[in-house]
Write a structure and sequence with these properties.
The chain is α+β, with helices and mostly antiparallel strands and 134 residues long. The protein has one domain. It has an eight-stranded mixed β-sheet with strand order 7-6-5-2-4-3-1-8, with helices on one face. A hairpin with a 2-residue loop joins strand 5 and strand 6. The termini are far apart.
Length: 134
Amino acid sequence: MIPAYFETHFRTDSPIDSWPDQFAIITGFATTGESWSDDRNHAADQQLLAQLTAAGHQPIRITGFSPLTHHSEASWAVPMDWPAACDLGLAFLQDAVYWVDRDALSITYCDDRRALVSVGSFRDRLHQPSSQDR
């Protein structure tokens, strides 16, 4: 797997106290190694959101970012099983998706190499504004 996947952190404005125990983190932005225009990234993000909500999910906005390079990608946290998340990631041209099971953060390829690979603690990689900032 690409080393940058293991360096990813996340930020969200949504309090995570009521989040489900298990959820996937999926982006519609340009897949690894590709560069898309802002318009194409935005369109893919909105299409992903529409597909998630049409399926009855209530996705939560979360952004994955690199603390080293400051690259970031808007994503969606959504409670669904990880094979379905992989299928959706593949449909949106993604190399991999993240999976959270309680506090355990993993990553998996979306293609036939699917296997959960441990990344570490989700909460240790989560950045939220303090209550003073909200």
